[in-house]
Amino acid sequence: GSLERRRCLYLHTGRACCQMMEVLVAALILVCSSVSGGSAGGYSGLPALGGIYYYQYGGAYSGFSGADGERAQQLDQRFYLLKLPVARAAVAVGGCLLVFPCVLILIGVLRVPWHFPAWLLIECTLYIVIAVGIVPALYYFFHSLLSVYNSSVCKEREQLYQSKGYQGFWCSLHGAEIAAGLLGCMVAMAYLLSAGLAVRDYRTVHEQKQKPLQL
């Protein structure tokens, strides 16, 4: 009916479009963070992934033998455990950034801002607080990752794999981690834009609700 049409109209507003973009970017952050954490991988993961490693690592998997094999497994596990807290924190943040705009879209569809205009000011405040909070979160993310990559565990692991002719185990940020950081910056800017749109919509709703009183 007419109520359903009014609710669907919210999805065509600028604020809703911005929120849907935030959902998409947050989902990408979640994916990139998951890739960054990955699995223990390395020596223990090479055989299970089959022939693709013939191309990615420059030759058929020959494996390690004896003490080198045991050392590779130990280094893989230690490196994985070093990255695990950072990856879990990034996934948690990405999940929160995904849920937050979804909740706001639902609130908008239910026309809560029309019945309670002050909610838009609350929404604006939340957007600004989270956008500002993303800055130290990104600093922690990259600082922690660089600490892991500069560790003796990563350096020894890199040298061991290079000695066997395998590439791709470098101690440096990879594409998914850099992408997660850039997407985080995009979310912060989108949140600031949404904060401005919330203030604009608050003024619009306030003016519209005052018109019957003037008549």
UniProtKB/TrEMBL annotation:
Gene designation: Marveld3_1
InterPro entries cross-referenced by the UniProt entry: Marvel (IPR008253), MARVEL_domain_protein_3 (IPR053077)
TM stretches of this protein: 21-43, 86-107, 119-142, 178-199
GO CC, one annotated term: membrane
Superkingdom assignment: Eukaryota
Start and end residues of each MARVEL domain: 10-203
Keyword Transmembrane helix part of the UniProt annotation: yes
Membrane topology per record: Multi-pass membrane protein
Subcellular location: Membrane
Alphabetized UniProt keyword annotations: Membrane, Transmembrane, Transmembrane helix
Name of the protein: MALD3 protein
Keyword Transmembrane set for record: yes
